Amino acid sequence: MNQRKVYLLLTDTGTIFTRMIRLFTQEPLNHASLALDDQLFEVFSFGRKNMRNPFIGGFIKENIRSGLFKQASCAIYCCTVSEIQYQKMRKKIKQMEMNKQKYRYNLLGLIGILFNIEIERKNAFFCSQFVASILNESGVIFMNKPIAFVTPHDLKTSTPFELIYEGKLNVYFSMEMKSNNQSYLLKTM
Fold first, then answer.
1. Which of 3, 113, 129, 139 has the fewest CB atoms within 10 Å, measured from its CB?
2. Digit-coded pLDDT (tens) for 24-55
3. What confidence tens digit (pLDDT) does each residue in 90-125 have?
4. Dihedrals φ, ψ of 37, to 5°?
5. What angle do CA 59, 113, 119 make, to 5 degrees?
């Protein structure tokens, strides 16, 4: 049976919104994204639709090589999934991407975590709720709490994920470029 790798990306962009969340979570990395490729080009989450306005949010395909992510701290986790699980994830994300205007950021749900009140809203997610939902629906992880309470910390401690990198995101990409160039040079010699 074919297997694929998917990646959990946890970041801290240093924005005011991120710093406020950190006050409550006491965790250094509070934004979760799901990547479907090893080069981290297909990275999805729920967050800002407009970099200048943190209150307009929803489903997004993130460009983690620019904008708020340029100087971000991160941790990258990897998980091996079956081809069937991978295709379920891809199908759900594609469906959301095609209907992204229907989805919004679940700020109320995020506030619900603070007060331990489960707030589920139709077509609304916060970042870790989105990632947990995709992973749960595809059978990769099963959380021992409602998806509405899942934090980035919960995701990183879920069984199938293994840490592959921790540090600055731009350093990771420079390491990847060097690694790819060395592989190319070895192949051409």
1. 3
2. 878 889 999 999 998 999 999 999 887 777 67
3. 999 999 999 999 999 999 998 899 899 999 899 999
4. -140, 155
5. 65
Residue 185's pLDDT is: 37
What's the distance, CA 54 to chain centroid? 17
Measure the CA–CA gap between 176 and 115, rounded to whole angstroms: 41
Structural domain total, the chain: 1
What type of residue is 28? Answer: P
Which of the 8 DSSP states describes residue 182? H
159: containing domain: 3-188
* CB 45, CB 130: distance < 8 Å: yes
The CATH number of the domain holding residue 88 is 3.90.1720.10
Other beta carbons within 10 angstroms of residue 43's beta carbon come to 20
Beta strand residue intervals within 13-52, DSSP E: 31-35, 43-50
